Amino acid sequence: MNYAQAQRAAQRKVTVLQIVMVAVVAALFWLAMGWHAGLAALYGSLIVALNTLMQARQLKRADRIAGLSAERNLRYLYRCAAERLIATVVLLAVGIGMLRLEPMPLLVGYIIAQVALVYGWFLESSARRKHG
After folding, report:
1. CB atoms within 10 A of CB 126
2. How many beta carbons lie within 10 A of that of residue 85, not counting itself?
3. How far apart are CA 93 and CA 102, in angstroms?
4. Over the stretch 59-117, which tens digit does the pLDDT of each residue have?
5. What is the value of pTM for the model shown?
6. pLDDT tens digits for range 3-30
7. Which own/partner pairs from 106-111 qualify as long-range (CB within 8 Å, at least 24 positions apart)?
8. Local structure of residue 99 (DSSP, 8 states)
9. Is the pLDDT confidence value at 120 over 70?
């Protein structure tokens, strides 16, 4: 298995892990606190998914825009990090404020999805070490 295949396999594992963990957490909140709480946990995890999609899109765009210029690349990536942070804060505020979702399940869903994402980074770095 080459590096690209190992990276795709790690990404699939992370995606499956995220889905399973979020589904379990949402189901637990649904059973314990009702369907509003389960929906809040799902919403929190969707914030992480959207953030991940934004990051992937921005990394591709940074490569296209900045090319090999380290200064331009770094400046663009700092701006992208700020955009993702703002998007996360706005989506959390919309979920809690406008949609009136339960804060605790929303944040737990967000944290669980984030933990699965960090686990994915460990899987990817493991694949990178194995394939040089």
Report:
1. 12
2. 11
3. 12
4. 778 778 777 778 888 888 899 899 999 999 999 999 999 999 999 999 999 999 999 88
5. 0.82
6. 677 767 777 777 788 788 888 999 999 9
7. 106/40, 106/41, 106/43, 106/44, 107/44, 108/25, 108/29, 108/41, 108/44, 109/22, 109/25, 109/26, 109/29, 109/40, 109/41, 109/42, 109/43, 109/44, 109/45, 110/44, 110/45, 110/47, 110/48, 111/44
8. S
9. yes
Round to whole Å and give the CA distance between 33 and 23. 15
What single-letter amino acid sits at 44?
A: G
Tokens coding 28: 């637990």
Cβ partners under 8 Å of residue 61, min gap 6: 76
Length of the chain: 132
Residues 19/120, Cβ–Cβ less than 8 Å: no
